[in-house]
Design brief:
The protein has 444 residues and is α/β, with parallel strands linked by helices. Helix content is 41%, strand content 15%. It has 18 helices and twelve strands. Strands 1, 2, 3, 6, 7, 8, 9, 10, 11 and 12 form a ten-stranded mixed sheet that branches. Strand 1, helix 3 and strand 2 form a beta-alpha-beta unit. Helix 8 runs parallel beside helix 10. The chain is globular and about 70 Å long. It starts with a helix and ends with a helix.
Length: 444
């Protein structure tokens, strides 16, 4: 979406909201205590009068944000923070943009993609954090540069995301298989064949990270060729398509695509119930795996990095990087107080988010404390050596930043392949053709 169109759209929403109370976006407003000490807010405004900051984020309050707010508020009577949850989907992001455009109560807000952040920068909603000189974002947060827009930081990334493969280690041991430290999709397919049974899948995975291997290839070799045309018909795209379809063929190495979509398969639950030997997911699964009341399990969990399509490990780039990038509203009346809170949040105040799978990105946070909070009373149920390998490695990371239109067209075409409606060549040709059309449209 172009800048002028974005601003016009948001302005129209604002006008609608102000002019008529009956004009509605039709969106839903619904949505542990930390040991980290919160410093007293050191701002001139805070000394004069009580301030209330409102922070908007996509994580349910009970999954960590309320613990963050409670810890801060207990130490800062003059600067209190309240949390407003918005669902991180199209409707929820529109709700946040509308609140920003109509100057509702927003002091800080979390951006979950670079595309969302760029849109809000273009609309004038974000404060340039370079105006504050007492905190070096690049020194504190490795990999923060991916959130630098127009040469400036309009948001501070606060978390590190990790994607990896979860193993039922009991099944691995029974099959005589080792926990991989690095591997390929060919090896993943072989593991799935050995671990499957009539009542158990070898591998299950969420549909959202399903095409991550494609982005790994494109980040390495480019989404476009040197001449500017689409490179999304790369040979490794075809290798992934054929590998996945072969795994789906018997219905047990991995679920057939149509079956998984139609049944709305709860893959986390399938894995935690022992009905799958491997789960391709990420840190957010700890919310479920540590909830042994609702997800009782008797097996130990081990971890491996996601497999690669490329032959050479040195050419592999894994999905991950920094995220949960927090902006200060450019029109906030309490920017200094918001900045004080944001620094505290990044440097340890966000620790209550860890049990929910949010990992602090700041170097100021103690990693041993992170592990203790992450595993809690369930530490003995995890292979911690393999967990540390996937959490604290130096594998290059990328954050997916493809426009939604490109993600959608790619998905539409590989769905046709997985459901038998077209072959590999037709799928790659269609993805590249539609991507080229998109490229031409954006240049107009």
């Amino acid at each position: 979406m172009k800048k002028n169109h974005t601003i016009s759209m948001i302005a129209a929403i604002a006008a609608c909201m102000v002019a008529a109370t009956g004009c509605s976006t039709g969106m839903d407003n619904s949505g542990g205590a930390s040991n980290t000490a919160a410093p007293a807010a050191n701002t001139a405004t805070a000394k004069k009068e009580k301030i209330t900051l409102t922070m908007w984020g996509g994580v349910p309050a009970e999954s960590g944000p309320q613990g963050v707010v409670d810890a801060w508020n207990a130490k800062n009577s003059d600067v209190q923070v309240k949390y407003e949850r918005y669902v991180n989907d199209d409707a929820g992001n529109m709700k946040l943009d509308t609140a920003l455009a109509t100057e509702q109560d927003v002091d800080l807000f979390v951006n979950y993609t670079q595309t969302q952040l760029q849109r809000r920068i273009d609309a004038g909603f974000t404060q340039d954090l370079g105006t504050y000189t007492d905190y070096n974002i690049e020194e504190k947060i490795q990999g923060s540069g991916e959130w630098k827009m127009n040469g400036k930081y309009y948001a501070m990334p606060t978390s590190k995301s990790h994607y990896f493969v979860w193993f039922n280690k009991d099944l691995l041991d029974q099959a005589g298989l080792k926990v991989p430290t690095e591997w390929t999709w060919t090896e993943m397919s072989a593991y799935a064949d050995k671990l499957k049974s009539d009542k158990r899948y070898g591998l299950v995975q969420h549909t959202e990270p399903l095409p991550d291997p494609l982005d790994s290839v494109s980040v390495k070799y480019g989404y476009t060729k040197p001449d500017g045309s689409s490179n999304m018909d790369h040979a490794l795209y075809g290798k992934w398509l054929e590998t996945m379809k072969a795994m789906m063929a018997d219905g047990r190495a991995t679920p057939p695509y149509a079956e998984q979509i139609t049944s709305k398969m709860p893959v986390d639950t399938v894995f935690l119930k022992g009905e799958a030997a491997m789960l391709n997911a990420g840190t957010w699964i700890f919310r479920s795996s540590n909830n042994t009341k609702d997800n009782p399990r008797t097996f130990k969990v081990a971890f491996a990095p996601v497999p690669r399509l490329v032959d050479n490990a040195s050419d592999f780039i894994s999905r991950g990087g920094t995220g949960d990038s927090i902006s200060i509203n450019a029109k906030s009346k309490n920017k200094e107080a918001a900045w004080t809170f944001l620094k505290w949040y990044a440097d340890g105040g966000m620790l209550p988010m860890v049990p929910g799978g949010r990992f602090p990105a700041s170097k100021s946070v103690n990693q041993d404390e992170v592990m203790k909070l992450l595993l809690g009373d369930n530490a003995a149920t995890y292979d911690q050596e393999s967990l540390k390998r996937v959490l604290f490695n130096d594998v290059p990371k990328y954050a997916r930043s493809l426009p939604k239109q490109v993600l959608d067209l790619r998905q539409e075409e590989y769905e046709k392949f997985f459901t038998g409606k077209q072959d590999v060549k037709a799928t790659l040709d269609s993805i590249a053709r539609r991507h080229n059309d998109y490229i031409k449209q954006t240049k107009k």
